[in-house]
Specification:
Order of helices and strands: EHEHEHEHEH
CATH topology: Rossmann fold
Radius of gyration: 14 Å
Oligomer: single chain
Strand content: 5-15%
CATH architecture: 3-Layer(aba) Sandwich
Distance between the termini: 17 Å
Number of helices: 5
CATH class: Alpha Beta
Structural class: alpha/beta
Largest sheet: 5 strands, parallel
């Protein structure tokens, strides 16, 4: 049996956060969505550092690249370098379609790269596919909570 996993959304745009939450609600995706708005908070969350000591280990991270304080590229590099965190799948979910961002994200071990959709139907489709693939199809090792 597959159990729901916690998802960490790292996004600084309040509209995109609302849009993502609304999409999860619309599709009745049962995974708990946690949100932080910058790269520093993201690393503190996954490392369970203050103020996130009780944070669950995310089973999936949705990561924007253009973040305040510490950008998504630096977050990816930190996650890839940490043996306790590098097995968490990271989907880059960003507006950038620059070839350099795509290549660098995969070099830093991103699991997937998705250019943010501009309409509701496309976002719903992206979230549904992510849910189907990462949360019900992929079986990972080392995902202890």
């Amino acid at each position: 049996m597959v159990s729901a996993v916690d998802i960490l959304l790292v996004e600084d745009d309040a509209g995109d956060v609302w849009f993502t939450r609304d999409t999860f609600d619309y599709y009745k995706i049962g995974n708990q969505l946690h949100v932080v708005s910058d790269g520093v908070a993201a690393l503190r969350f996954v490392r369970r550092q203050p103020p996130y000591e009780d944070a669950p280990r995310p089973g999936l991270i949705l990561l924007d690249l253009d973040l305040p304080r510490l950008d998504g590229r630096a977050v990816l590099a930190e996650l890839a370098a940490d043996p306790d965190l590098r097995d968490i799948p990271v989907v880059v979910l960003t507006t950038s379609d620059a070839e350099s961002d795509i290549m660098r994200s995969f070099t830093l071990a991103a699991s997937a790269y998705v250019t943010k959709p501009v309409d509701f139907d496309r976002l719903v489709d992206v979230v549904r596919r992510l849910d189907d693939f990462y949360l019900t199809v992929v079986v990972r090792t080392g995902a202890a909570t």
